[in-house]
Amino acid sequence: MAMDSGWVTTLLPVRLYDELEVEIANSIPQRAVRDFKDWRLCYSEKFVMPKITMHFRGADVEWKHENAFVRVNQDYECLVMDNGFHIYGGVAQVNYLVGFDVTRKTVSFKSAEI
């Protein structure tokens, strides 16, 4: 998976994304808004985000609300993921210090929350 802080969304393989979207939607009791503009999963009411953990070799990164959803206008918050290439986008990296060790070919994550 490529790490790209300049790419906003996280892109996952089609099947993985589809399964994750269903799990997220099933975990949030509020009614989902589907396919709002270019966003596939949105909500117009406040909600509690389910636990999402991204698993990497040697690192598990637990996402907070701001790593998975973004307010796209005054009415909707939408999931900042889609299917496509394998990219760990910039929103997923919010409030994390991301370290790259090119010699060991590893990535590390440290929470930057105070």
Automatic annotation (TrEMBL):
Keyword vocabulary terms for this entry: Hydrolase, Protease
Leader peptide range in chain numbering: none
Gene Ontology MF annotations: peptidase activity
SUPFAM superfamilies for this protein: Acid proteases (SSF50630)
InterPro entries, alphabetized: PEPTIDASE_A1, Peptidase_aspartic_dom_sf, Plant_Aspart_Prot_A1, TAXi_C
Presence of the UniProt keyword Protease in the record: yes
A GO BP annotation: proteolysis
Domain Peptidase A1, residue spans: 1-110
Alphabetized PANTHER family for the sequence: ASPARTIC PROTEINASE CDR1-LIKE, OS07G0603500 PROTEIN-RELATED
The protein's name in its UniProt record: Peptidase A1 domain-containing protein
Upper taxonomic lineage: Eukaryota, Viridiplantae, Streptophyta, Embryophyta, Tracheophyta
